[in-house]
Amino acid sequence: MIKVENLKVKFSLDNQTVEALKGVSFHLNQGEILAIVGESGSGKSVSCNAIMGLLPSYATVEGNIFIDEKNIKDLSKEDMRRLRGSTVSMVFQEPSAVLNPLLTVGDQILETVLAHKDVSYKEAKDIVLETMEAVKIPDPERRFYQYPHELSGGLKQRVVIAAAVVNKPKYILADEPTTALDVTTAAGILSLFQDLKQTYNIGILFITHDLGVVAQIADRVVVMYKGEIMEEGDVYQIFDNPKSDYTKKLLSSRVYL
């Protein structure tokens, strides 16, 4: 599992210090979807970036993060690089900000394979095409040679997801991956995450501010506010019998945060 213990993160910049996380603890099992829900500034994305070891140099981190019993603070930069993309991957909110406009989408996914597997180009391409088909990208052979600007927003997000799962990681961290998509396209992406969980037994940490998404996709839920966990429980408990006043307010408002 991924286990976060008493994680504290502070950002110090221009003589100012912001306490982004104030001692949060949670875990993600393989084969489940854990949703972290909260408004902007609650610490959701900071938690993801901390797990991936992607916090900026001006961040101060306390606490422990274990990935399959390995404490990431004990890992070298090379160890973390090997871990990213093979054991744990991340899907970001805006695919256009992730994809290189100068490379075909196939080559961008293929780079991920070659970075972690000792295979030939042809073998890597076969893995990529198989993965593109698995994430329901139509006509993967043709799409392989297309550039990001030739694809719709939904297809670009599927390309990013393909890059995240191409090496069959145990865990995916998805940081609001449907926010930039229309309702119909977003529903297809949510369905895809559920399929990936079942097909590959992947543990998915799903960051969102949308309670409707939480109800649709999550097995367990963590509710965050201003860097602290207000409540944690299975999805039925959170929606049917919330304990925290903050959670109750979220549920009563039923609005996008």
From TrEMBL:
Annotated ABC transporter domain residues: 2-251
Q: Main subcellular localization, coarse class? A: membrane
Q: Which domain of life is it from?
A: Bacteria
InterPro entries for the chain: AAA+_ATPase (IPR003593), ABC_Ni/Peptide_Import (IPR050388), ABC_transporter-like_ATP-bd (IPR003439), P-loop_NTPase (IPR027417)
One GO term in the molecular function aspect is: ATP hydrolysis activity
- What's any one GO cellular component for it? plasma membrane
Subcellular localization is given as:
Cell inner membrane
Q: How does it sit in the membrane?
A: Peripheral membrane protein
Give the keywords, sorted: ATP-binding, Cell inner membrane, Cell membrane, Membrane, Nucleotide-binding, Translocase, Transport
Q: Which family does it belong to?
A: Belongs to the ABC transporter superfamily.
Q: Which protein is depicted?
A: Dipeptide transport ATP-binding protein DppD
What taxonomic classification does the UniProt entry list for its organism? Bacteria, Pseudomonadati, Aquificota, Aquificia, Aquificales
